[in-house]
Amino acid sequence: MRHTLSIDGRALSYLDFGGAGRPLLALHGGMSEAAAFTGLAAVLGDEWRVIAPDQRGHGDSDRAPHYRREGYVADAVALLDHLGLTDPVAVLGYSVGGLNAYHLAAAHPDRTGALIGVDATVEISIPSGPQWYDFLGGLPYTAPTREELLATVGPAAAPFVADGLRPLPDGTGWRLAFHGQDMLDSIHACEGDHWDTWLASTCPALLIHAGRSQALPQATADAMVSRRPGTSYAVLDGDHFVPFTDPEGFHAAVAKFLATL
To answer: What digits encode the pLDDT tens for the residues 217-256?
Structure first.
């Protein structure tokens, strides 16, 4: 069921899949939304209560003043407080959400009982020159109709954004599930060395790695597991988008780890 939390006048929308099971806070990747975890929630069933926010600037949540780690982490803590979840919860994060998840675990170890990082790296450098995500800067945000918005987005990006299109509240048109400039800001805010943060938490952890990942090299993944005590490793055959291209493998890896807690 979808709910909305107000944080300093800014809406944070979230899906609470319900159930009496232990809570699992699930943080989606960039340019995605909470609904990406619908399949996972169904697989976990009554054992786990999946709670997934549309993180700031995504989905039904409002745009935010910035997209630095402290903002994402503060939103997650506010959501846990809002739900009265004061005991440690399991936290899962994919890609940018994984970065947010292990920053949450480091900053609030009393709120994080287990950690699952999905193809989330600790070394992020943004090289000079053209990048695949540069198209975000030219994306339209709104259009009078859904068809016009998809046409303006262009054939390359249209399949990627189509499922997330939303009607504007005032009925004057349609919008994307994210603003392109916000996503660029979020990407650039990830840049840096996050090793100290990854190593700061001590809860049981699992790193799910896409074996052909464009974001997490094998050597870095191996080091993340070997350098952090209590960290398990699962590899899936796919690229960075493996939670979507191999959902069964992704769901199985998560369920197997959660069963050990």
So the answer is: 999 999 999 999 999 999 999 999 999 999 999 999 999 9
CB 77 within 8 A of CB 111: yes
Please check whether residue 228 lies inside any domain of the structure: yes
**What is the CB neighbour count within 10 angstroms for residue 151?**
13
Model-wide pTM > 0.90? yes
Cα separation, 102 vs 190, whole angstroms: 13
Asked whether residue 31 falls in the same domain as residue 15, the answer is yes
Q: Domain containing 110: what range? A: 2-128+182-258
Grouping H, G, I as helix, E, B as strand and the rest as coil, residue 259 is coil
The token duo for 260 is 């050990």
**Cβ-contact 99, 197 below 8 angstroms:** no
In this predicted structure, the answer to whether residue 211 has a pLDDT above a threshold of 90 is yes
29 lies in the same domain as 153: no
Helix intervals (H) in the chain: 38-44, 69-82, 96-107, 146-153, 158-161, 180-189, 195-200, 218-227, 242-245, 247-258
For the chain, the farthest-separated pair of C-alpha atoms sits apart, in whole angstroms, at 53
